[in-house]
Write a structure and sequence with these properties.
The longest helix is centred in the C-terminal third of the chain and has 28 residues, at 283-310. The protein has twelve helices and nine strands. Strands 3-2-1-4-5-6-7-8-9 form a nine-stranded mixed beta sheet, sandwiched between helices. The protein has helices at 11-23, 41-51, 77-89, 100-109, 124-130, 147-163, 172-179, 198-207, 257-275, 283-310, 316-320, 323-331, and strands at residues 65-69, 93-97, 114-116, 136-139, 167-169, 192-194, 223-227, 232-235, 243-245.
């Protein structure tokens, strides 16, 4: 693991390696485990830049079709923040599957989102038919914890598991996992990234009865965990791809910030998988790590830039207005 402000040993070697990655990943197929050293901060920055697609010659959908499953009568902002961020980062389409009570509200937030009022057991077959059209799915923002919702989301995760659909699970989606930890156990690659805050991470840790530092290994090789906080900790069984991120951000921990991260992560996740940074058995884990790093970096920068302007008054909606500037600052 590393601190983004720590001294980078082996800097020259890894920069040289990443330049090769950017030119032609096929040439370093046998080096995709990056030998016996952990990746360095600058390596993640360069790999993050390498996954961003060019817009020239693309057609609608090439840059990603992101699904967000969440929302309830109480929480309409969370799925909106996640979905609109996925598009602001660069995805072409964002679908929101939400409750009937939340759908009209979310549609009024933005005409850019495709909103389905199907988050109900009576529409289970409709949800099942929509899942294949989505490249990456975020499950959890604003779900609530009603027993019927928990049951429905468990079934949806199982459907995604059967399809091998890449998932980002956040917020109340993590509550569902804590109540049925086996639902993502041995989830196939390209896998799942869980994004708990410290309180949610402790609940998951207790649920799997793993109180040591490797509790996240319970779910298998294709499930990674990004624990958000003052420092962001990314944990995976492929320890060479684990990291700790600091820097950026502010003391303002505003509601909706985690939803912004989940939407950004979904888009970066799709790009990293599509880029195929390394065509070997660990390519999915590397994609998860690079995508999570990019999402954490962007979220921290958005928070920092918004706080410079709004200070204590910073809101999640202010952070969204800074996404373009954050992308330019981080990856150009």
């Amino acid at each position: 693991m590393f601190s983004l402000h720590s001294k980078m040993r082996g800097y020259s070697y890894f920069v040289a390696l990443c330049v090769i990655v950017l030119v032609n990943c096929d040439e370093i197929e046998d080096k995709c485990n990056f030998l016996d050293s952990k990746l360095q901060p600058n390596t993640f920055r360069l790999l993050s830049k390498s996954i961003i697609p060019t817009m020239a010659g693309s057609v609608k959908g090439d840059a990603g079709k992101i699904g967000v499953i969440g929302g309830s009568i109480e929480y309409t902002g969370a799925p909106y923040f996640s979905a609109i961020t996925s598009m602001k980062v660069g995805a072409d389409l964002a679908y929101v599957i939400t409750t009937e009570s939340a759908a009209t509200v979310i549609k009024n937030y933005s005409p850019d989102l495709i909103v389905y009022p199907y988050l109900n057991t009576k529409y289970a077959s409709k949800i099942r038919s929509l899942i294949p059209k989505m490249d990456v799915i975020v499950i959890g923002p604003g779900l609530g914890r009603e027993p019927e919702t928990v049951h429905l989301i468990t079934d949806i995760i199982q459907d995604c598991k059967n399809l091998g659909k890449p998932l980002v699970i956040d917020a109340d989606g993590l509550y569902v996992v804590s109540k049925n930890t086996s639902v993502i156990k041995n989830y196939p690659c390209p896998g799942v990234v869980l994004t708990p805050n410290l309180r949610e991470a402790n609940r998951l840790m207790d649920a799997v009865s793993k109180n040591d530092s490797n509790w996240y290994s319970y779910w298998g090789d294709c499930v990674a965990v990004l624990v958000k906080g003052e420092k962001d900790h990314f944990n995976t069984n492929m320890t060479v791809y684990s990291w700790i991120a600091t820097g950026g951000g502010s003391g303002r921990r505003v509601g909706g910030q985690g939803d912004i991260l989940s939407g950004a992560l979904a888009t970066f996740y799709h790009w990293a998988l599509k880029t195929e940074l390394c065509k070997n058995e660990s390519q999915a884990q590397l994609a998860q790590s690079v995508a999570a790093y990019a999402a954490a970096k962007i979220t921290r920068l958005c928070n920092y830039k918004a706080s410079l302007e709004y200070g204590q008054s910073t809101l999640a909606s202010d952070m969204i207005t800074k996404i373009h500037l954050a992308l330019q600052s981080a990856f150009t």
